[in-house]
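ARCHIVE CARD
Drawer: 12
Card no.: 0347
Subject: one protein chain, sequence and derived structure
Cross-reference: see card 0346
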Amino acid sequence: MPEHHLRRPAVEATTGLSRSSIYAMMDTGDFPRPIRIGKRAVAWPQSAIEAWLAARPASTGDK
């Protein structure tokens, strides 16, 4: 089964992060890097985004 890839707007919607946050976290190694899917297009493997989300600490909702 082929891997599904997410473009940046879908990654932003899935993670709740802004474009600048995504790229800043990529620079520090805290977010997966995209793969090139075309001459001027990149996308993130959905499995990489799901793994990143699963590794994040869960919020308890307590303040």
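Annotation on reverse: The CA atoms of residues 8 and 18 lie 10 Å apart. DSSP finds three helices and three strands in the chain.
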